[in-house]
Amino acid sequence: MKIVLASASPRRKELLTQIGISFEIKVSDVEEKVTTSVPEEVVQELSRQKAEAVLESCEVSEDSEEILVIGADTIVACDGMILGKPADEADAMRMLKLLAGRSHEVYTGVTFAYKGARQEIYSFYEATKVHFAPMTDEEIQTYVSTKDPMDKAGSYGIQGFCARYITGIEGDYNNVVGLPVGRVYQELKRFGGNW
Q: What span, in angstroms and rounded, lies between the C-alpha atoms of 29 and 65?
């Protein structure tokens, strides 16, 4: 079975490689549309759009192998407010001020878009609670100046410089990085194959 990761995220690529999955990367250029404000529904909706768009762009003939596209989307939610990637440094600072000294949730939605003897779309999500230490304005500015927050939901990466402000998590660490690979591996079993 051919597996395609519908993401340009280096973190997702690294996580999937880490668990021994062979895959190709094909990035979706679909215009993302959100029809809900419920975090777990948002990430599943966006991951599905990415996976379906990439599956449509992959040609599968009757005699070719099966294909499974993995789409994923991660968001941060605090007080019911969804925090995506920051628009600019001021937006990153705003988000970090909101998160500092509090707890919030990180949601990752994953969709498997499968085409072979049958066609199937299967989505799920994982949620992890993250506890942040208080941060001074100077600490926030120092972190934002590293540019690390600029491509990350909620304006931070748990696996880098910002780890100094994470006091604990409840749930899957890899989910916060961007892909709950333990769950992904277990869910892949529904499609057969040797992983």
A: 24
Residue 75 phi, psi (nearest 5): -135, 160
Mind listing the pLDDT tens digit for each residue in 119-164? 999 999 999 999 999 999 999 999 999 999 999 999 999 998 999 9
37-46 pLDDT, tens digit each: 999 999 999 9
β-strand 2-5 against 119-132: which pairing, if any?
unpaired
> Using CB atoms within 10 A of its CB, is residue 24 exposed (0-12), middle (13-18) or buried (19+)?
exposed
The one catalytic residue among 29, 63, 73, 91: 73
- Which residue from 42, 1, 9, 43 is spatially nearest to 28, judged by alpha carbons? 9
Residue 121 to residue 187: CA distance in whole angstroms: 12
Q: Alpha-carbon dihedral of residues 68, 85, 169, 100, nearest 10 degrees?
A: 180
Question: Among this protein's residues, is 73 annotated catalytic?
Answer: yes
- Give the residue among 60, 74, 191, 19 at the shortest CA–CA distance from 122: 191
